[in-house]
Amino acid sequence: MTNRSKTVIYTGVTNDLRRRVRQHKDKKGCEFTKRYNINTLVYYESFSRIYDAIAAEKKIKSGSRAKKTALIESINPNWKDLSI
Fold first, then answer.
1. Average confidence (pLDDT) over 62-79
2. 66: which DSSP letter?
3. For the purposes of burial, counting CB atoms within 10 Å of the CB of 9, is it exposed (0-12), middle (13-18) or buried (19 or more)?
4. Which residues contact 72 (CB under 8 A, 6 or more apart)?
């Protein structure tokens, strides 16, 4: 997820993507996402096993901003809100 200006990229894991996105949009997510107004879903992956999801999250978080941007733009070049 990101904010309007695309200056901050937030990565997380959830078992209910719609619920979690709604929490962020309603500013009921974590303090980090509230502080930086993170409310736009620009990338997501689905996994059948939580271990795979956590491994993917760690890999994304450890990457550079350029790698995160490239990953987002590989499926969403215009950074549209995928939750709509």
1. 97
2. H
3. buried
4. 2, 9, 42, 43, 79
- CB 51 within 8 Å of CB 13: no
Identify the pLDDT of residue 71. Answer: 97
Closest CA to 60 of 43, 47, 81: 43
Domain limits, the chain: 17-75
pLDDT, tens digit (0-9, with 9 covering 90-100), for 16-66: 999 999 999 999 978 999 999 999 999 999 999 999 999 999 999 999 999
Give the chain's length.
84
Q: Which two tokens stand for residue 72?
A: 């987002």
Going by C-beta distance under 8 Å and a sequence separation of 6 or more, which residues neighbour residue 81? 40, 41, 42
